[in-house]
Amino acid sequence: MTPTLVRHHRYADSSAPVDTGTRARDWAEIQERMLAPLYEAVYARLEVGAGTRMLSLGCGSGLALLIAASRGARVTGVDTDRDRLALARERLAAEPGQDTGRAGPRARLAESVPAAAPDGEAPYNLLTAFQPIGCTAGDSEGLAPALASAMPLAVRGATVVLAGWGPPERCATAPVLRVAARLTESARAPRSGSGWRPALRDDLEEVAARAGLKPDGSGRVSCPFGYADVDSAVRGLLSTGLFDTAIRATDRTQVEKEVAEAMHPHLRPDGTVWMPNVFRYLVCVT
């Protein structure tokens, strides 16, 4: 899917309130596609297809659902971000021109974990949590409870996939993300929340252990972050939420300026930005 890049955005005006709709669209049009290699690698390994009934936790604007549905899977997506969920409904509409308030016949969306699989369908046999953890202190704390509430909806022995950032030395974006920690610490704002931290080797395994899951393999996937220009890169990265703490501790304008400066080592002669990264995934069974 080719992203639509908009040159001017409301984040640039630090006096304006955050436009959550614009932010969600920045995620959908710029940033989410960076994780497509991760989705594809997992689906290929698990042979996702017509027999797959997938429940995706934190489905965002639905790209992972769309790719799974294109392979024949029946998918259900859950996300608390209403703006991203609205974009997912648009993507998963059954036919162009139809009511986009509903997903297609092989997909459904919800703001919370459903009480059961769709009527007349078997329980889920694949649970995914593709939102990468291991980059913000405490970013995994809500995942184990979410998995615990979802697992009763799955068949016994269902597959669960967790995703996270790879080692900082394998992620060119890590020094850019470190800006968030530096700005938060320099502002000395303890109430502003927990900032960025380096990914740890056992982040995914610790979540699996807390959720009572049994690891059954893992993998690493190259997910380079490529942008048309620095402006698009800043918008894409801010849409992840990883800089929210820094923005609260300082202001949006300062964060955008310093993130843009941190991009310089990755700026190509043609003005594009390219940052190679590695992400991890852990395959578990219930």
Automatic annotation (TrEMBL):
Q: What EC designation does it have?
A: 2.1.1.-
- Gene Ontology MF annotations: methyltransferase activity
Q: Where is this region: Disordered?
A: 1-21
Q: Which BP terms from GO are recorded? A: methylation
Basic residues bias: start-end ranges = 1-10
SUPFAM superfamilies noted in UniProt:
S-adenosyl-L-methionine-dependent methyltransferases
Q: Where is the signal peptide?
A: none
Q: Among its keywords, does the record have Signal?
A: no
Tell me where in this chain the Methyltransferase domain is found: 55-95
Q: Which InterPro entries does this entry report, sorted A to Z?
A: Methyltransf_25, SAM-dependent_MTases_sf
Q: List the Pfam families.
A: Methyltransf_25 (PF13649)
Domain of life of the source: Bacteria
Sorted UniProt keywords: Methyltransferase, Transferase
According to UniProt, the name of this protein is Class I SAM-dependent methyltransferase
Source organism per UniProt: Streptomyces mutomycini
